[in-house]
Design a protein that fits this description.
The complex is a heterodimer of chains A (118) and B (112).
Chain A lengths: L3 E4 L2 E4 L5 E7 L6 E7 L5 E8 L5 E2 L8 E7 L2 E6 L8 E8 L9 E3 L3 E5 L1
Parallel strand pairs in A: 2-11
Antiparallel strand pairs in A: 1-3, 3-8, 4-5, 4-9, 5-6, 7-8, 9-10, 9-11
Chain B lengths: L4 E3 L2 E5 L4 E6 L6 E7 L6 E6 L5 E4 L2 E5 L5 E6 L8 E8 L7 E3 L3 E6 L1
Parallel strand pairs in B: 2-11
Antiparallel strand pairs in B: 1-3, 3-8, 4-5, 4-9, 6-7, 7-8, 9-10, 9-11
The chains are: A mainly beta (118), B mainly beta (112).
Chain lengths: 118, 112
């Protein structure tokens, strides 16, 4: 079945560091990927929609200069948290949808990246 | 404010009991999905409902989509400790972009 891989799964770094998270669709192509953030004991909140070959679409309240998204190929989207601070510590999850074949296919989620900023 | 409200937020029951989780909204969704999430992992899709009034069964889990496509419920029969987890409903409003709006979540704990 369709698989989405995220890397790294866990990262700890100092305040002020920029961190890059990768999201790959392993056996299908995805022109659109989604990035979510989840704080402890809370639900997933959509941050942005990553579009292959064009600019990402950010949700209201999400700083595009803080969370840089690049979707350079049909199987890879990256989220870079620039100059990360402790308040950026969270669980970041990506998802992708296989656009080929049957319509209305569900989104497939990665296993998430736990980011801890000291 | 959460677009999709789930209730209850937390539920602790004994093995063998039945339970129902509700997902309510004032907005219409083109489809609605239910996920279960384990700690430290991404959500795993359980079911997708598309048609108003639709009922789907997955072993001991029964999912229903409201007639007006604004609400849904998940009923678990004879809960088992393996059912423990965070249950999330998620709806698609924008049929073009198909971004998911997640519910507030229901944390279920089934005691052996």
């Amino acid at each position: 079945g369709a698989v989405v891989s995220q890397h790294p799964s866990w990262v700890i770094c100092k305040s002020g560091t920029s961190v890059k998270i990768e999201c790959r669709s392993l056996d299908f192509q995805a022109t659109t990927m989604f990035w979510y953030r989840q704080f402890p004991k809370q639900s997933l909140m959509l941050m942005a929609t990553s579009n292959e070959g064009s600019k990402a679409t950010y949700e209201q309240g999400v700083e595009k200069d803080k969370f840089l998204i690049n979707h350079a190929s049909l199987t890879l989207s990256t989220l870079t948290v620039t100059s990360a601070h402790p308040e950026d510590s969270s669980f970041y999850i990506c998802s992708a949808r296989d656009l080929t074949g049957v319509s209305n296919q569900p989104q497939h989620f990665g296993d998430g990246t736990r980011l801890s900023i000291l | 404010t959460q677009l999709l409200e789930q209730s209850p937020q937390f539920l602790s029951i004994q093995e063998g009991e039945n339970l129902t989780v509700y997902c309510n909204s004032s907005s219409v969704f083109s489809s609605l999905q239910w996920y279960r999430q384990e700690p430290g992992e991404g959500p795993v899709l359980l079911v997708t409902v598309v048609t108003g009034g639709e009922v789907k069964k997955l072993k001991r889990l029964t999912f229903q989509f409201g007639d007006a496509r604004k609400d849904s419920s998940l009923h678990i029969t004879a809960a088992q400790p393996g059912d423990t987890g965070l249950y999330l409903c998620a709806g698609v409003r924008d049929t073009g972009r198909r971004a998911l709006t997640f519910g507030s979540g229901t944390r279920l704990q089934v005691q052996p």
